[in-house]
Automatic annotation (TrEMBL):
Record function comment: Translation factor necessary for the incorporation of selenocysteine into proteins. It probably replaces EF-Tu for the insertion of selenocysteine directed by the UGA codon. SelB binds GTP and GDP.
GO MF: GTP binding; GTPase activity; RNA binding; translation elongation factor activity
Pfam families: Beta-barrel_SelB, GTP_EFTU, GTP_EFTU_D2, WHD_2nd_SelB, WHD_3rd_SelB
All residue ranges annotated as the Tr-type G domain in the record: 3-177
Protein name: Selenocysteine-specific elongation factor
Xref: Gene3D superfamilies: 1.10.10.2770, P-loop containing nucleotide triphosphate hydrolases, Translation factors, Winged helix-like DNA-binding domain superfamily/Winged helix DNA-binding domain
Cellular localization per UniProt: Cytoplasm
Record's keyword terms, sorted: Cytoplasm, Elongation factor, GTP-binding, Nucleotide-binding, Protein biosynthesis
GO cellular component: cytoplasm
Annotated signal sequence range: none
Length: 627
């Protein structure tokens, strides 16, 4: 089965025996500070290894119980797999017990054991009353079916049973994912003489190795993992679920603080605005108003911010989940699904908690449309979330998709065969609806151009791409153009794009006048008037005349003698045939003049046209037929 890693939180009211029970289980005194020894209370988080069996590596986090140290408590239980809620038999459930229960529930911790401590201080009958009180308090919570174990830490009564229950509960917990990008929220920073900066924390995701290059977010400081220790034992690797100390190179203690996050990749978002699904303590002691100042505890971070509602202006008592937004004063590192706790700064109290729906949120309008959008975000399947994200960003790499959606890279790879995901190029993806939308815009642009310019071969590709790039990314436009060409929906001639079946035609309202211009040029043979004369005689407007000229030249129905005179294709062919019949091999200027009966005004540019068309080649004072 392999080694598995778990973290257990020891929670409960102050002086209910959490630290003593931790020491009895692990033989480690987690109160290491002088002040903790003197005051006999836990101030900072304490950690100890617990041996259950050879397949499990378990860390115990002893969290402070005093209300003044609630932030340390939240930092300690974030990321734990199992909680042991300690309730002293001589006091029963106390206010801090209830608050810890609320916090654990908001953080999504679903498995727990109730350890009734100090049973040696009360009669067995009183212990039964305490058990009944605990069951009543847990009714309706996620811990209502949690096993209750009676223990005495000093005499070690019940410890074997407690360890057995711990093993049972851990066996029912899904193992943390070692695959994926490494993430460690830092809860302790210190320096060791001769070693430098050391950070500690519980690995949320992934794994880390010695000599791995990492980054400290949100400051984005590059560091190197020089040494790793798990419970004071040096190791080469550490994985999700393990408590680890990392000796970092490239950074000083002053540059890092608790709440910073150590990561191995760019998969994590640094943000100040997050969409959240929030549940409130019920009942609340005080009204929560729109834009209320709150303190957010997420991972090991605590940061001030404002609570933004989109469907109400205040909350008094609310049993359901509220979709809203947090706008924070400082940047945090988070991803979809991360749990958080909200506390009121003054008077200090827990008001609620929930999970991150979108770590990369934007500002929205107040109203039902926003609530519907947030519900779609909240409830969407992985492919729906990917589709929504791609619709917003248009094109993303797999790594950026993972970052934006909170879906692991491995899970996104499993979605690549979905028709909703379109591979644009190696490692880059868009959504089917985005690509379809671009296709519609391309076809609309081309069709509209044909309507307005029926004589032109098509729209200039660069101009169309420039126009569409105001709405779509250029590489997506290029991708869809190529796709439409392969499908024979459009065609490309040189730099022009047209519908596949399109052929230029005279516009209905000008057809007769255009035909008259062509007929007049044809009838005049080699002695043509200027283009301007024909246009003037027909009454064609300037734009239509210019379009007609380009059309006739493109179709090779006329050929330019110069920039004013244009010859019909039939007249040109007639002159070639006539001259070739008289002079089949070569001819001079005077020969052409005699045969064609043309003045120099027409004759010289006509013979130069022969040269341009590669029909003839000049050799000294005569021309030779090439073909």
């Amino acid at each position: 089965m392999g080694q598995r890693y778990y973290t257990i939180g020891m929670a409960g009211h102050i002086d209910h025996g959490k630290t003593t029970l931790t020491k009895a289980l692990t033989n480690v005194d987690t109160d290491r500070l002088k002040e903790e020894k003197e005051r006999q209370i836990s101030i900072e988080l304490g950690f100890a290894p617990l041996h259950i069996n050879d397949e499990m590596e378990v860390s115990v986090v002893d969290v402070p119980g005093h209300e003044r140290f609630i932030r340390q408590m939240i930092a300690g239980v974030a990321g734990i797999d199992l909680v042991i809620l300690v309730v002293a038999a001589d006091e029963g459930v106390m206010p801090q017990t209830r608050e810890h229960l609320e916090i654990l529930s908001f953080l999504g911790i679903e498995r727990g054991i109730i350890a009734v401590s100090k049973i040696d201080r009360v009669d067995p009958e009183f212990v039964e009353l305490v058990e009944d009180d605990i069951k009543e308090q847990l009714e309706g919570t996620v811990f209502q079916d949690a096993p209750i174990v009676l223990v005495d830490s000093l005499s070690h009564i019940g410890l074997d049973l407690l360890k057995s229950k711990i093993e049972e509960e851990l066996n029912m917990i899904e193992e943390q994912k070692i695959s994926g990008s490494f993430r460690l929220p830092i809860d302790q920073v210190f320096s060791v003489k001769g070693q430098g900066t050391v950070v500690r924390g519980t690995i949320y995701e992934g794994a880390v190795e010695v000599d791995r290059v990492l980054r400290v977010l949100p400051k984005n400081i590059e560091v190197k993992a020089r040494q790793l220790q798990v419970h004071h034992h040096q190791v080469n690797t550490a994985s999700a679920g393990q408590r680890v100390a990392i000796n970092l190179g490239g950074v000083t203690k002053a540059e890092i603080k608790r709440g910073d996050v150590l990561v191995s990749s760019n998969d994590y978002i640094v943000t100040k605005t997050i969409d959240i699904a929030l549940r409130f303590v019920n009942p609340l002691k005080y009204l929560i108003k729109q834009r209320a100042q709150v303190k957010c505890h997420i991972g090991t971070t605590e940061v001030m911010g404002k609570l933004i509602f989109f469907d109400r202006n205040e909350v008094e008592n609310e049993e359901g989940e509220v979709l809203c937004q947090l706008r924070l004063d400082e940047e945090i590192v988070t991803k979809r699904g991360d749990r958080f706790i909200l506390r009121r700064p003054t008077p200090a109290e827990t008001i609620g908690g929930g999970w991150v729906v979108d770590p990369n949120a934007e500002k929205y309008r107040f109203g039902e449309a926003t609530i519907k959008m947030l519900k779609d975000k909240q409830e969407g399947t992985p492919i729906e979330r990917v589709k929504r994200t791609l619709n917003h960003h248009q094109v993303l790499s797999i790594a950026d998709l993972s970052k934006e959606t909170g879906i692991t890279i491995e899970a996104i790879h499993e979605l690549l065969d979905s028709p909703e995901m379109i591979s644009i190029k190696e490692g880059m993806y868009s959504s089917a609806s985005v690509i379809s939308g671009i296709g519609e815009q391309i076809l609309e642009s081309v069709n509209q151009f044909h309507q307005l310019n029926p004589l032109m071969i098509g729209i200039n590709k660069a101009e169309m791409s420039q126009l569409l790039s105001k709405k779509f990314k250029k590489d997506l436009i290029e991708f869809k153009i190529n796709e439409l060409i392969k499908e024979h929906t459009i065609k490309r001639v040189d730099q022009f794009i047209s519908l596949y079946s399109f052929e230029p035609t005279f516009p209905a309202q000008w057809a007769k006048r255009m035909e008259s211009v062509v007929l007049a040029i044809k009838n005049d043979g080699l002695n043509v008037l200027t283009w301007a004369d024909y246009v003037s005689q027909s009454g064609l407007p300037a734009k239509e005349a210019n379009d007609l000229l380009h059309f006739l030249l493109g179709k090779e129905q006329i050929y330019p003698l110069d920039d004013k005179l244009y010859l019909h294709q039939e007249a040109l062919e007639h002159s070639i045939n006539k001259l070739k019949a008289e002079k089949p091999e070569k001819f001079e200027l005077k020969d052409a003049k005699e045969t064609l009966q043309l003045s120099r005004k027409y004759l010289v540019p006509l013979l130069e046209l022969y040269d341009k068309l590669k029909l003839t080649e000049r050799l000294e004072n005569h021309r030779v037929w090439v073909k």
